[in-house]
What does this fold into?
Amino acid sequence: MPPKVISRALQMKRVRFKGRTSKGKPIAYPAIDDLLKRIKALKPHWAQRHHPLPNPSEPFAAGTSCSFLVDVRPRTTGDMKGVYFEVGTYTHGAAHQQITLDYSQAEPPLENATLPHDGRHARAISNVIRGVALGETIILDSPKGTGGYGAAQQLLSRLIIQNCLKPPRPPGEPPHKTPTWPGIELMDVMSNDLRREIERGGGVATVYMRVAEATPGEDDSWQSRLRGNLDAMPHASKFHAKWEADDEPLDTDSVLGAVDEFSEDDSTIEALTLELVHGNRIRTLGKFKVRKPIDVTIDSAGVLHTSDIVNGLWQYLDELRSPDPEQWRLIDDNGNFTTHATVSFTTNS
It folds into this structure.
């Protein structure tokens, strides 16, 4: 089989810690790459980075979804900032449909079977999510069948909660209510193309937003503000909001902050539409997500060249930190966002 080149998509995600509130003292959350290095140092054995935790006396039931942190490796090229990491996923005891490639038969010889036992341990087909992390930025390659970004978010959240302690408070202050950092959300990121589209349209004249009945968001979120109005009317299931500009367009950074919340996987904001000063409307925001296609080689033996993915991840991180012709960049040298930042918040911790 001759080598072939396939296309894979890298997607940028913004790390946001859960449990933010508008009360208490402001804190700065740690860089995600530092937390990943801490987890690897504290849990050197891969089974310690596995969810659920393996128990030899109680094997997993067939069909159990499992995930694990494969590895965390500091960068050794460029400016040496950030880490490369892998998240593995598999289903314990899953039977996979297989085919015997006997083309002489009238019907395809299909059968369901589990992988053969090696004599001591069960085996499973695993999938790998690859990524790089720096500051509040994660870039992922997540092909179909891996469990996607949600699998990476859930595993990393669990490992952070289990292993990453907050620094002690100064003498005389009460201890933290929760000793470890909270879990994380991986938020979609909108490219500067959305900002440019807004600028070309003369700014935002009107924002339409709809929130549904759901779990309340953090106190300082758009979702929480809208949910408060929804709850004010008994038996209401949805609340529609509309903001209209005065003589000046609405603040672009505030609008982009609302777009970020709308883009979260578990957002309670059901719909968001931007009406621009010049009359255009922006309803479809997916095309503005920050992503990049890369070419990956599959050689004649059918082996995927993972080095193409790793190099592509690092190159994309460097591109995102490089200023454009207008001297604007999405993230700084340390992986923190340059606009409508969410690095520091207030908390009840």
The chain has a mean pLDDT of 85.
